[in-house]
Amino acid sequence: MALLLFFAAGWAAATEVELEVGGTSLRYDMPAGYVRVSEESPALTQYLQAAMPPENRLVEAFYTPADIQTLLAGGGAVKDTYFMVQANRSLESHTVSASDWRSLLVQATAVMDKVDVNAQLAKDGERNQRMSEAAGKPVRMELGKVAAPQVYVQTDNEARFVVFIPLTINVDGEPLTINAVCAGAMVLVANKPLMVYAYRASSTPADIETAKQALGSSVDALLALNGSTQRSP
Predict the structure, then answer these.
(1) Which residues contact 48 (CB under 8 A, 6 or more apart)?
(2) Is the pLDDT confidence value at 121 over 70?
(3) Strand (E) or helix (H) holding 26
(4) What are the CA-CA distances from residue 79 to residues 65, 145, 161, 178 (Å)?
(5) What confidence category does residue 54 fall into, taking pLDDT thresholds of 50, 70 and 90?
(6) For FRET with 155, which of 7, 128, 222, 230 sits at 20 to 30 Å CA-CA?
(7) How far is CA 174 from CA 130, 177, 205, 230, in A?
(8) 133 Rama sector, left if φ>0, alpha if ψ -120 to 50, beta otherwise
């Protein structure tokens, strides 16, 4: 109950910001105590983008100022939940109808639990080079066995899933091992497909629940703020 009250209090004081996706301005509730990483640290934004698959664009990331300083200082594990909103580069300029999105979502979730995440990630052979260039020092990211994402919520408009990400990040010879949990959602917001994520740097049962609750608040607020612009087929 204390955890739920914490999130209710935090999101009640959220700050509304705008996100640009494919020429569309979307309203987003930034949690209390968080900042836009693109404004607070453009260098960290470049580093986060470098770690992502090239086909995805980092729309925005949201961290606490303390966690940003931790990362910029050379990186222990972040303490708080952090958030990312991403868009697929090939899709974000398109207007996707609700009916087309339902079809895409059904197809995607039907195979999600069979995806070999490690094999997909291994196809990106330039990730470490991109991250090193963004950081200005040698970076090597090594992933452990990443299990297929598990869907825990699905509607006509969204699918929410959880995935566990064991990894070691070696920055300039200093390794850091993390067993992270990611709660993610594929969601159509104002006819724009988005991926919304909430991460924790550890994956205890409490961390998993925290990530799910944070993701739910983020997605629910996105849909509430932008739902009136949704166009039916």
Answers:
(1) 37, 58, 61, 84
(2) yes
(3) strand 24-30
(4) 11, 23, 22, 12
(5) very high
(6) 7
(7) 18, 10, 28, 47
(8) alpha
Helix (H, G, I), strand (E, B) or coil at 102: helix
Enter the pTM of the model.
Answer: 0.90
Q: What is the Cα–Cα distance from 198 to 209, expressed in whole angstroms? A: 11
* Strand pairing class (82-88; 24-30): unpaired
pLDDT over threshold 50, residue 6: no
The token pair at 88 is: 């697929």
Close Cβ partners of 19 (under 8 Å, ≥ 6 residues apart): 25, 26, 27, 28, 59, 60, 85
Contact present, 59 and 21 (Cβ < 8 Å): yes
What one-letter code names the amino acid at 6? F
Beta bridge partners of residue 183, listed in sequence order:
162, 198
